Amino acid sequence: MSAVAPAGMTERAQRRDWTLYWVYPVAAAFVLIFTAYPMIDLLMRAFTADGRLSLALLSETVADPYNRKVFWNTLILGATVAILGTVLATLYAYVIARVAIPGKRVWHFFALLPTISPPILMALALIMLYGRRGLITHDLFGLQTTGLYGFTGLVVAQLISYFPFAYLMMLNLFKGLDASLEEAASTMGANGWRVLRTVSLPLLVPGLAGSMLLMFSYSFADLGNPLLLGGDFPVLSSQIYQTIIGMYDIPKGAALAVLLLIPALMMFFAHKALSARMSFASVGAKGSSRHREVRHGGVRAAGLIFVGFITLVICLQYGTILAGAFTQLFGINYSFTTKHLVAALTKSRGALVDTLLLGLVASFISVMLGLLIAWIVARTRARGQSLLDFTANLPLAIPGTVIGLAFGLAFNGPPLILTGTAAIIVAAFVVRSLPYGIRSGVAALNQINRTLDEASTTMGATSGQTLWRILLPIVQPALLAGMIFSFTRSVTTLSAVIFVVSPHWSLVTPTILSQMDRGDVGEAAALSVIVVVMVLAVIHGVPRLLGGDWREAR
Amino acid sequence: MQQTLAKAPVHAPAESPVPTASSAPAKGQTLAKALSIRHLDKSYALGGGRRLPVVTDFNLDLAPGEFVTLLGPSGCGKTTVLRTLAGLEDFESGEILLDSLSIARLPAHHRKIGLVFQNYALFPHMSVFENVAYSLRLRRVAEATVRSEVASALAAVGLEDYGPRMPGQLSGGQQQRVAVARALVMHPDLLLFDEPLSNLDAKLRVQVRSELRRLQRRLGTTALFVTHDQDEAMSLSDRIAVMKSGRIEQVGAPEEIYARPATLFVAQFVGKVNALPATILDEANGQVEIEMLGTRLRAPSPATGLPRDVLALLRPEAVTLGGPDSGLPGIVEDIEFLGDLTEYGIRVGDTLVTSVRSALGDAWKIREGDRVGIGFKEQTIHLLPRTEAAV
Fold first, then answer.
1. Which of A420, A433, B219, B316 is the most exposed place for a label (fewest CB within 10 A)?
2. According to the lineage, what is the superkingdom (chain A) (predicted)?
3. Do A399 and A470 lie in a common domain?
4. Which domain CATH number covers A170?
5. Which of B2, B125, B138 is facing A473, going by the closest CB pair?
6. A148, A33: one domain
7. pTM
C-alpha cells in the first residue's frame, strides 16, 4: 500500500501494529459473553411473562408479603452488619494505628485471618460453639437454645467474616491521615480526644461511609451463613437458593435476584460517587504521615482489651474448627482422631483438586485479562474503552448469588451450553476477580512512565512487544499479588459457584455446605482446615516458588 | 507525492560501510542522512471544535551529519517537533523526509530513529547489556552480533564494564550514557535528544555535553537536540533553531544567533542584552549613523532596510567601564557579584546600561554611586526594528 518504503526495510516491517486488533476483541468478547450476556439473560427472565416484556413477574414477587419480609430482613441485616462492623473496624484500626500497645503484628494477623477463609466457616464454628449442642451454650451453660439461628447468629457470623475488610480500609485511612493536621490541632491546645473528635473523625467520615457500604454489599452477597444460620430469618440470597434448588421456580428466582440486585447496585454507585468525592478530601500539600501514638494508660488498657477480645473470638472460631476436625464427634466425644482429615482427603479429593486447579487457572486468566483491559484503558486511545472498563467492573456491584444464578441459567441452554464443564466455573471465578485484576493492572501501569513504552517503540517494538517485554515483566510483582487475591476470592466463595458446580467438577465450599446439611461436622471442619491451609500455602508459597524479583537487585 | 517518492534514489543497504573523506563512519554505521521537515503543523483539540496550535508551519533542514539544536522556552513546541519526528505524535499536515524519502506515515517502530529521553527511560528490569541489546533482540539479531554490537556501543560511551549492572545501580550520568548507547546500537538514521542533560547536576552536565558532542562528531550521525538551556545549545550545535510559540524565530550558527539575533526574543533568550532605543539618522557605505544614549554613533548596517526608530542591541560584556572622563558619563546604580563576573547597572541619562566584567584583582574598586565612563566598540551594536519593543 505504501510507496514510501525506506530502503532496506522489509515487507514485514511495513505491517501495522496489530496488537490492539486482537487484544481488544478478546477482552471485549470475554466481557460480553461472560458478564453482559448472563446478566441480560437474567434480567430478561425477570422482565418477561408469556414471552413478552412485562413487569408482571416482578410486581407479583414484590406483592407477596413473604417476599417483602425477606427483602426487609435483607436490608435490616445489611444495615446492622454495616453499622456494627464499621464501629468494630474503626475501633480496631484506631487501636492498631494509633495506640501504643504491644503485639500489633499478632493482632493484625488474626484480624485478617477471616479474609482468607470461606465465610461459611464462621457459621460452622458458631454452630459448634453456640448451637443447640454447642460447646459453650450447651456444655458450659447447660442451655438448650436455638437463639443462634436467625438474626443474631447471622449478625455475628457476618461481622466476623466481613469486618476485617472494613478494618483494612480504615487502617489505611488512619495511616494515610495527614499527621500534621492533628499536630496543628494539638499545638492549638486540643487534647487527644478533642483532636480525634474535631479533626480526625470529620476527615474519616467519607471512609466510614465507604466502609458501611462495603459491609452492606458483603452482607447482601453472603449465602453460606444465611443458609446455615438463617433459621426463621430468611434473606434474599438464601431465598433465591431455596427457590431455585428447592422449588425449581426459575422465573421467581430471577425476579428475587433482581430484587437483590437493585439495592446492591445502589450501594455500589453510592460508593463510587463517594470515593470520587473522597479524593478531593485529600487535596493539599503532602504532609507527614508519622503519627504520635497515644500513650495514655487507660486508653492503652482499653485498646488492648478490645483487640484482645476480638482476636479471642476469632481464634475461638478457628480453634473450634481445628478441634472439630481432629475429634471423634465434636460436642459428644472429644478423643483425638485423624479420620475426618483422612475422609476429607479421600472422599473430597476431587473437590480439593478441582478447587485448587480451577482456582489457579482462573486467577491466572483474570490477572492476564485484567492486565490486557488495564492496558487498553491506561495505554491506548481505543474507542469504547470506558464502556469495556465499566462492564468488566460491574461484577463488583453484583452479589455472588446473582452472578452464580445468571451463569447457571444463561449457560444451561443455547447458544452457549457450559453446564457441567470446568469452563463455567473458571468463567464465574474470572468474572468476579476481573475488576480487581483490572484495578491492580491500571495502578501498576500508571506507575510506569510512558517514556518506557515510547523508548521501546522507537527501538522498533510493536505495542504488543512492548507489552510483553517491558510492561509485563515490570508489573509482574503486582500481577502476582493480584493472582493470589483472585485465587483466595475464588476458592472461598460459595454464592458464585453453588449454581454452577456439577458432579464432574465439584468445589470445596459447596461440599462443606452439603456435609453440614448431612450433619457431618467433623468432615466439614476438616475440609475447612484444609482450605485455609491451602490458601495460606498459596499466599506464602507461590511468591517464593516463582523466585526473586528484580527489585531486590536495587 | 507518491510518484516522486517512488523515484527517489535507492540507498546503500544499511549494513554496507561506505567510508567518506572527512568523517569516516564507524564500521557498520549507516551513512549519515539529511533530514528535512516541511510545513509541519500540529495542534491539540481543546474541545468544542477549537484547537490549540503547538507547531505552526515548521520548516527545518539538517545536512547529513549535522548537529542542530531546537532552543526555546518550555511550551514552545520543541519537544513536540522531536516527538513527531520519532513518530510518537501525530500531526495535521506537513512532510518529514529522510534523504528525500518520506517517513511521515511510517509507524514509530519502523522509523529507525534513536531517541534519548529526558528521564533516560531505561528499562528497570533489564541489565545495562539487555537495555542496549533490546532493539537488536527485537530484530532477532544473532547472539554473537548482539554481543559485539552492544560491546562497541557501550565502549563508545565509556561503559565497557557495566553490562551486567542494573540501571538502578548506576549514577545519573551513567544512566544517561546507557540511554545514548541504547540509541546508538540501532545505527539510527537520525539521533534525537530530548533535554537529556537536564537531570544531571551542573558540573556533570558540562562534562557529558562535550562527550556527547565528540561522540556525535565521531559517528557522524545527523542529530537534533532539544533544550531550553542556551549554554548547552551554544556549545553543542553546528546550528541552532530558536523557537517561540510553535514557530522558528531564527536558525543559524551559534555565533550568528548570539551576535546578530533576528528578534529581541532571540537576543534575550540566548543571553543578557541591553536593548537601547535609537534613531537612524543616515545610512551609507554599509554603515548607519544613529543617535542613542544622547550621542551620535556609527553602527554596522543590517542587510534589510530598517525603520527610523530602532533598538540597538549591545551585549553587556561588550560594554567597558572606565574613569569618569572616558566614554559616555554614567553613574553606577547597582552592583551584583556573580562569582566569575560582576554585573554593573550604569545610569546613562535616563537609560540603564548593563555591563559585566571580571572584577578579580581589580585595583580600581567600583562602588555604587561612583561616576564612571562607559565605552563599546561600534561594530558590536546590532540594530533591530523597534516595533516589537514590547516583547
1. A420
2. Bacteria
3. yes
4. 1.10.3720.10
5. B125
6. no
7. 0.82
Cβ–Cβ of A460/B105 closer than 8 Å?
A: no
Rounded percentage of chain B residues whose pLDDT exceeds 90: 55
Closest CA to B32 of B245, B191, B160: B191
Which amino acid makes up residue A346? Answer: T
Q: What number is the ipTM of this complex?
A: 0.80
Sequential DSSP letters for A174-218:
HHHS-HHHHHHHHHTT--HHHHIIIIIHHHHHHHHHHHHHHHHHH
The order of strands in the sheet holding B113-116 is B113-116, B190-194, B223-227, B67-71, B239-244, B247-252
Q: Is residue A279 part of a domain?
A: no
Which candidate from B111, B121, B168 shows the least CB-CB separation from A553? B168
Is residue B19 within 8 A of residue B32, CB to CB? The reply is: no
* Cell numbers found for residue A283: 487535596
User: How distant is the Cα of B21 from the closest Cα of chain A, in angstroms?
Assistant: 23
Tens digits of per-residue pLDDT, B320-336? 888 888 888 999 999 99
Average pLDDT over residues B81-110: 90
| Among B109, B139, B226, the residue to mutate for chain A (most A Cβ within 10 A) | B109
Q: A454 vs chain B: nearest CA distance in angstroms? A: 7
Q: How many residues does chain A have?
A: 554
Residues of A in contact with B182 (CB under 8 A): 455, 459
- Three-class SS of residue B187? coil
Q: What is the per-residue pLDDT across B328-368, written as a single tens digit (0 to 9) for each? A: 899 999 999 888 888 999 999 888 999 988 877 676 788 88
Residue A259 lies in a domain: no
Last residue within a domain, chosen from A276, A303, A337: A337
Judgement on whether residues A30 and A103 belong to the same structural domain of the protein: no
- Would the CB atoms of B11 and A13 count as touching at under 8 Å? no
Domains of chain B, CATH where assigned: 2-264 (3.40.50.300), 265-388 (2.40.50.140)
- Determine the residue of chain A that is closest to B98 in CA distance: A6
Say whether residue A554 is in contact with chain B using an 8 A CB cutoff. yes
Structurally, how many domains does chain A consist of?
A: 2
A529 and A498 assigned to the same domain: yes
Maximum CA extent, chain A = 93
φ/ψ of residue A226, rounded to 5: -60, -35
